Amino acid sequence: MLALETSCDETAAAVVTESGVVRSSVVASQAELHARYGGVVPEVASRRHLELVGPVVREALAAASTSLDDVDRVAVTQGPGLIGALLVGLSAAKAIAWARGLPLVPVDHLHGHVASLFLGPEPVEPPFACLLASGGHTQILAVRDHARLDRVGSTLDDAAGEAFDKGARLLGLGYPGGAAVDALAREGDAEAYRFPVARVPGLDFSFSGLKTALLYAVTELTPDELARRRADLAASYQRAIVRALVERAHDALAETRLDRLAVVGGVAANSELRAALPDAVFAPLALCTDNAAMIASAARFLPAVRPPGYLGLDAYSSAA
Ligand code: KG4
Ligand code: ZN
């Protein structure tokens, strides 16, 4: 199977076998292109996807030592994400499938993140509870089956990755900042500042107040003081995000009566979160942030649409 993923600022293609062996996974990140704007500029992302999608698909096929002759299904992210960015991948996937008379499998991006756990030498088998924390989404899912995800909690405002990115920006760490906060936090004192973690009812999250608290702490400091306290701020800020995620993850286990927890999405790469949930299963690091191998993985458990049925498929921007 050949899979494409272009929902945000990564142009990705992968070749994955029916049994879930990743033959190749190529990710071209546009992060540098967007860094000077402090975030992803949708129209810039769409144009860059257009330039990269062909070469990235060719590279994925070459890295798997295969060609389109050996591909029997094409999978692609249909949503949620940036609509223009999604349309580039969806159109490319339709074109490849149509030219070859192949079926197409439209995949939900969030299902893809969860399906990163179904790949590789030790796939995780449902049922389990899953914390999905990325730049665009923060949810808790009861994964009943390979293709059945019931959402039991969700953020009411910012996603956890977005909180990391906004915090990084306030600390002058650039975009995207999750990994930079993670690295700087190791040199700081996580108890130096007490940042609030909002408690909302049920299994939901709220991160917008935390970001405001950091803003106030930063504006009270002179540039010199900020330089000296930056690691402490990063460590304390990260501690608050991790605490919120860990608490909710434990609540979710109790409420769903599922006995295993898995963590996926870009924030699953965070070292403090990994350490704070020693019993949880984490997606492999390379599969935490956006990639196409996870999209192929999800597609293995979904119905394929035969030609010409998929030609009218449209992308969708927000989660169902
Ligand atoms: O899953 P992903 O690649 O994209 C979305 O689907 O949104 O997640 C990207 C997010 C960014 O917000 C990035 O800052 C965050 O994951 N991230 C991290 C780390 N590595 C990436 N956040 C905290 N610690 C990290 N080590
Ligand atoms: Zn993602």
Short synopsis of the structure:
The chain is an alpha/beta fold and 320 residues long.
Structure notes:
With 320 residues, this protein is of the alpha/beta class. It folds into two domains: 2-118 and 289-312, ATPase, nucleotide binding domain (Nucleotidyltransferase, domain 5, 2-Layer Sandwich), CATH 3.30.420; 128-283, ATPase, nucleotide binding domain (Nucleotidyltransferase, domain 5). It has ten helices and ten strands. It has helices spanning 31-35, 42-63, 83-100, 109-115, 160-170, 178-185, 208-219, 223-256, 271-276, 293-299; strands at residues 2-5, 10-16, 22-29, 74-79, 104-108, 128-133, 138-145, 148-154, 261-264, 281-282. A five-stranded mixed sheet has the order 3-2-1-4-5, sandwiched between helices. It is globular, with a radius of gyration of 20 Å. The mean pLDDT is 95.
What is the CATH C level class of the largest domain, in words? Alpha Beta
CATH names the topology of the largest domain as: Nucleotidyltransferase, domain 5
Task: Determine the mean pLDDT.
Answer: 95
User: Which superfamily, in CATH terms, is the homologous superfamily of the largest domain?
Assistant: ATPase, nucleotide binding domain
Strand arrangement, largest sheet? Answer: 3-2-1-4-5
Question: What CATH architecture of the largest domain would you give?
Answer: 2-Layer Sandwich
Residue stretches low in confidence (pLDDT < 50, at least 5 long) are: none
Major sheet: size, sense and barrel closure? Answer: 5 strands, mixed
Bound molecules: 5'-O-[(R)-(carboxyoxy)(hydroxy)phosphoryl]adenosine, zinc ion
Strand content: 15-25%
Percentage of residues in helical conformation: 40-55%
| Broad shape | globular
> What is the CA–CA distance across the termini?
26 Å
Sequence of secondary-structure elements: EEEHHEHEHEEEHHHHEHEH
Number of helices: 10
Strand segment count: 10
Q: Which structural category fits the helices and strands?
A: alpha/beta
Number of domains: 2
Q: Rg to the nearest angstrom?
A: 20 Å
